[in-house]
Design a protein that fits this description.
Distance between the termini: 32 Å
CATH superfamily of the largest domain: PhyR, sigma-like (SL) domain
Mean pLDDT: 88
Strand order of the largest sheet: 2-1-6-5-4-3
Number of helices: 10
Pfam families: Sigma70_r2, Sigma70_r4_2
CATH topology of the largest domain: Butyryl-CoA Dehydrogenase, subunit A, domain 3
Protein name: Sigma-70 family RNA polymerase sigma factor
Structural class: alpha+beta
Largest sheet: 6 strands, mixed
Domain RNA polymerase sigma factor 70 region 4 type: 105-152
CATH architecture of the largest domain: Up-down Bundle
Subunit structure: Interacts transiently with the RNA polymerase catalytic core formed by RpoA, RpoB, RpoC and RpoZ (2 alpha, 1 beta, 1 beta' and 1 omega subunit) to form the RNA polymerase holoenzyme that can initiate transcription.
Oligomer: single chain
GO molecular function, one term: sigma factor activity
Strand content: 15-25%
Length: 283
């Protein structure tokens, strides 16, 4: 491997992680990383004093350009838009702490707010460095990150979770759903629970959020009675959340993740859009 390629590969996980958290899908992140590589390879190595800073700047600006067009597409997206689920402790993305709820809430930030927040609070860059990346004064970047934090605190509050609680709730919910235990489902759900579905207009899914333990429990109990069971159900952990994956005919049809609140299930995320599940298949 030549030195130019070796340096880029050293930073690839960071660039992929930045792209994923900026854009919400691995496919878009990979496209951005590939475009960053083309621009990196076009510049003579002796002209780049700080490779990470150069690569960060290129990736961040490409992401900002992409978000401008993505915002238009999201306005016409059918139903809720959820980030693509990714596994932890893999080479897909590095493990910085950005919860699934935070990634959803970031959809309401401006592209510059999102970039300032991620680069400073998650990737540890100074506001002076971020100012260079975003072509804004450091003070402006500080304000952007501050506004982002205020919004995220209000839209995605943190709930303390005991070790193993998510897995326990996911397993119990799956058992109750399989058996059509309506009361058991209700007991597992927080009274203010919310279910978000993402079918992307490609497969059938609820277009609007479903609120309340009673409505969510009745929906799953009804689905158990009416739907053919999946060929395989697999326990998963994506984006720091426990859940399970349904597979039929060798393809993933659902990834359902559980966000615990106060010992019960507070939020559920059901990703059904096949474009976001294409990487998963039976082995």
């Amino acid at each position: 491997m030549d030195p130019c390629t070796a340096i880029f590969e050293e930073h690839r996980p960071f660039l992929r992680s930045l792209g994923y958290r900026m854009l919400g899908t691995l496919a878009d992140a990979e496209d951005i990383v590939q475009e960053t590589w083309l621009r990196w390879a076009a510049v003579p190595p002796n002209e780049i004093e700080a490779p990470r800073a150069f690569l960060s700047k290129v990736t961040a600006r490409l992401c900002l350009d992409h978000l401008k067009s993505a915002r238009v597409k999201r306005e016409t997206y059918v139903g809720e838009w959820l980030p693509e689920p990714v596994a932890e402790e893999t080479d897909e993305v590095t493990g910085e702490d950005v919860s699934y709820a935070v990634m959803i809430a970031m959809e309401r930030l401006t592209p510059l707010e999102r970039a300032a927040f991620l680069l400073h609070d998650i990737f540890g860059q100074s506001f002076e460095e971020i100012g260079e990346l975003l072509a804004r004064p450091a003070a402006t970047c500080r304000q952007l990150a501050s506004r982002a934090r205020r919004h995220l605190r209000s839209q995605a509050p943190r709930h303390p979770v005991e070790a193993g609680e998510g897995r326990r709730l996911a397993a119990a919910f799956l058992q109750a759903a399989r058996s059509g235990d309506l009361e058991g489902l209700k007991q597992l759900l927080h009274s203010d629970a919310v279910l978000l579905n993402d079918g992307g207009g490609i497969v059938r899914a609820a277009i609007r959020p479903i609120y309340g333990s009673d409505r969510i429990a009745r929906m799953f109990e009804s689905l158990t009675r009416r739907k053919i069971p999946p060929d395989e159900t697999r326990e998963v952990r994506f984006n720091g959340l426990e859940g399970f994956m349904y597979l039929s005919d060798g393809k993933a049809t659902d990834v359902i993740l559980f966000d615990p609140w106060d010992g019960k299930i507070g939020r559920m995320y059901d990703v059904r859009n096949p474009e976001k599940l294409a990487r998963f298949a039976s082995k």
